Amino acid sequence: METHEAGSPSGRRADDGAASFGERIDRMSHTAQDAWKRTRGALDDIKSTADIEGRVNRHPYGTLAVALGIGYVLGGGLFSRLTGRVLGAGLRIGLRLAALPLLKDELFGLAEALGKGGAEPGASTGSHARRRGKQADANKEMEP
Amino acid sequence: MEMTREMEDTARQIGERVRPQIEEAKRRLAEMNGQVTGFIKANPGKCLLGALAVGYIVGKIASR
After folding, report:
1. Which helix (H) or strand (E) holds A107?
2. In the structure, what pLDDT confidence band is assigned to residue A124 with cuts at 50, 70 and 90?
3. Residue B59 to residue A80, Cβ atoms within 8 A
4. Which domain range does residue A53 map to?
5. Is the pTM of this model over 0.80?
6. Chain B touched by A53 (CB under 8 Å)
7. Fewest Cβ atoms closer than 10 Å to its Cβ: which of A14, A65, A80, B3?
8. Domains in chain A: how many in total?
């Protein structure tokens, strides 16, 4: 059967087809292996360049937070209402924290001013009263 | 004066009562922190992929 087919032109064509098919499969497997090797090499390069393990060892929580943020952005949550709320709350808290020292200074200044104002009536019995008395005496002398 | 002293005594008593609990909570938190950081350092890839996935899901939910 084989000799008959191999002798005929159609049998030769079938042999050529089988050979080329096998070659193709070999080539495909080689290409796939090459691609896999290259991908692994690229991943290793990325790992060594990004120093992911070192980063995780140095800042475990920070790296996780960055991964969480990247996932959030990839999930399309960047331009959402939740992001707006979170950013708004953060901005509000930040502004309050920044304004707190200023407010404290202002309040201390106000309290000091009020304290001085409250102390003045007591002071008027002392030096202020004396000054007022002297002024009254001078006015009396000036009067005809 | 008397009232201030009473308040100081009360505050001191409350502080003495609460201090051991705070110390215990601090110790537990430090222990937990050590366990979590240890796990993250032992499995960095898993943790990063998990965080990425969680962030992606939260982002998807938020964008709806």
Report:
1. helix A81-123
2. very low
3. yes
4. 23-79
5. no
6. yes
7. B3
8. 2
